[in-house]
Specification:
Number of helices: 4
Protein name: N-acetyltransferase
Bound molecules: coenzyme A
Number of strands: 7
Largest sheet: 7 strands, mixed
CATH superfamily: Gcn5-related N-acetyltransferase (GNAT)
Distance between the termini: 24 Å
CATH topology: Aminopeptidase
CATH class: Alpha Beta
Radius of gyration: 15 Å
GO molecular function: acyltransferase activity, transferring groups other than amino-acyl groups
Organism: Streptomyces spiralis
Strand order of the largest sheet: 1-2-3-4-5-7-6
Number of domains: 1
Order of helices and strands: EHHEEEHEHEE
Strand content: 35-45%
Keywords: Acyltransferase, Transferase
Structural class: alpha+beta
Shape: globular
Length: 160
Amino acid sequence: MRRARPDDAEAVRAIRNHAIEHTTALWTQTPQSPAEAVAWLAAHLDRGSAFVAEAEGEVAGFAVHGPWRHLDGYRHTVEDSVYVREGRHGLGIGSALLKALIASARDAGHHVMIAGIEAGNTASIRLHERFGFHHAGTVPEVGTKFGRWLDLTLMRLPLT
Ligand SMILES: CC(C)(COP(=O)(O)OP(=O)(O)OC[C@H]1O[C@@H](n2cnc3c(N)ncnc32)[C@H](O)[C@@H]1OP(=O)(O)O)[C@@H](O)C(=O)NCCC(=O)NCCS
């Protein structure tokens, strides 16, 4: 586990784009370009809110936290994202990443961490429960992908 660096952008992009193409974890079907990936990661690096896990010399997963919503009244709340490379799920990598992410958000003085999870994503819900996130509600049919409606489960962890 280590903090992300600018040269992780391509590996992170590959993991994100796989999730965009094949899953309902990210609610878009537009893959990230190399330039967008550099800019996206740079914004997180500036905030010190990006981590990667390495396994056998490759980036096996990443985690970031960023603003949950952009109006300044939400400034003490962050939203997390954790993604593990296909083929390396279920090995504890997501847990290691989320643990580091929560510690960094606490160190930064944030008050609450939110996870917004597609309601059928049992792996992500279990991962977040494991770290003390509680269900804060499910909003039906606020997204769509692959020709069906998606429900958003919100989970909440108090940090301070
Ligand atoms: C969700 C994700 C990050 C979990 O990471 P991981 O490294 O596979 O998870 P871990 O091995 O650390 O396991 C964490 C917990 O989730 C459980 N879990 C993992 N995969 C699971 C699955 N497919 N179904 C049910 N539970 C699962 C583990 O058993 C463990 O719980 P436990 O401690 O009670 O045994 C990973 O599956 C992933 O990248 N999925 C695709 C992207 C995604 O959905 N990201 C989250 C978007 S909100």
